[in-house]
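Field: COMPLEX_INPUT
Field: COMPONENT_COUNT = two
Field: RESIDUE_TOTAL = 599
Field: MODE = joint
Values follow.
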Amino acid sequence: MKRAALAALIVFLLTLPLFAGSDAVARIMPRGLSGSALLNVFLLIFLFGYLAQSWNILGGFAGQLSLGHAAFFGLGAYTSTLLYTEFGLSPWLGMPVGMAVAGLFGLAIGFVSFHYRLAGPFFTLATIAFAELIRLTALHLKFTGGSMGILIPLQGNSFWHFQFTGKTPYYYIALAMLAAVTALIWWMSRSRIGHYLHAIRQDEDAAEAIGIDTRRYKLIAATLSAALTGAGGTLYAQYTQYIVPDDVFAVGMSVEIILRAIVGGSATVFGPVVGSFILTPVAEATRVLFSGGGSGAAIVKLFASDAALEAKLSGYFKFLAAGGGGGGALMLYGLILIFTCLVMPAGAIPWLRRRFGQ
Amino acid sequence: MNRLLEASGVTVTFGGLTAVNAVDCHVDEGEIVGLIGPNGAGKTTFFNAISGFRRPDRGTVTFRGQNILGLRPHKISHMGMSRTFQIVKPFPEMTVLDNVMVGAFSVHASPARAREAALKALEAVRFSGWAHRLASDLPVAGRKRLEVAKVMACDPKLILLDEVMAGLTPSEHNEMIDAVRNIRSSGITVMIIEHVMPVIMNLCDRIYVLHHGDLICEGAPAAVVRDPEVVRAYLGEDFAL
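Field: COMPLEX_OUTPUT
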């Protein structure tokens, strides 16, 4: 039963691009949204699922709560993009270089933090500071395009240039990356490194006492996690074809990544994927439904008027969504996070497992 | 007889307080050596000092002829000396078997081999029946036994047991005594901190007594309990013989 449902989901995901453009889909999509918007939502589910999985290695398995993964994401995006715009190097080759750069930064922040025994909230603070440092650096350097960011020159449909006019190729690339990272984590969870990281998260002294070089394994986790996150940055850059520091290096990006892992269940094999399936559509729906907005003064006026309560609330939501770029999404995130903490503190996967057995 | 552990002049201070004061001690292969003393005598601190968790301020520690001072705990564990914790430290979200596999992985890289070794270690402490329970579900006696199984899985030469009997019922004591004897007969040397005197008398070949950080007595169990210094340390001046 469960197996059949999983197989059906996989078949659905694999074939979605084939029928996303059909009339039948157009008829059931709300408010004239196109099949292409549907593909976009799934693509973002995969991308953020991939990022959350990458985070899961360090933040979930090893229990080192990084809130600076935007740094690795952005480093991957900027490395492959700069190599492409400056030297014409294919982003396919830029991607592993970006992974190496992000991995090296992960290694560095890990080395400094673990050497000076930064643990718990202090490690988290260090990662935030580190990501902000990188963001500010990118904002003020000339060759990164400063606050204007970098626009990737369009080349049309070209595999070598990692550019496609349609969404379908990106869709499959993102799906493949998500599947690959999930397979990696599944393998890890059964092997020595997975046991070691779980042990380190649950009791570092006990882990040390039975032969685990805890510092070394935390460093491996930081490096691997950062490098994988960097590859996600390249995909994002190629898909949006425009990167800017306040987007890819922002704390908000780290939060987007981390929330999916926590809501789905961090330190589990499928939690971050489930989390992305839950949160990404919420984020996209609020972006679409609550677009528009208006000024603060208009909202005050609306609330003072004798408009119906629904009108007031919908106006308020639109206002939130328009201000702060996705305020509505953030509010819903907040609600979902509160719900998660209260009802299923370990995340969706452990909660479901407890409710419905294995 | 083969000398496994040799500590000399080991001193640990916390600020102005000397927790362990110039303690000399040794453990030979095949022995069960007890370390006793009233609360706060410095027993656990001494374990911390020789297992790499706290670097002693002075003194030397050699294990199997090698200087291990300043080595981190995992290195010392790899050399063959592993310790348990008085305040047990299970990995609560894992099953008992997975807990023990973590230890076994330091000897076997392959999950299948590690699993096999872990099952063997569970067998050694008579704990196989609990392999698939979650560690957080274990009662105290189970947690203590899990501590021992975890270090056993590391394929040690010497294990340091820190109060593995505390909080157990007398019948559980007997099971644990049986487990420790079984460990020794499989060729592993044991150093054990314990408060439960019958256990110590029963198990140990030799005993060291710590009091306020000083080593006040060393010898066979029967001699140690008659030592006036020891009686005074445990019962106070009034009871001095």
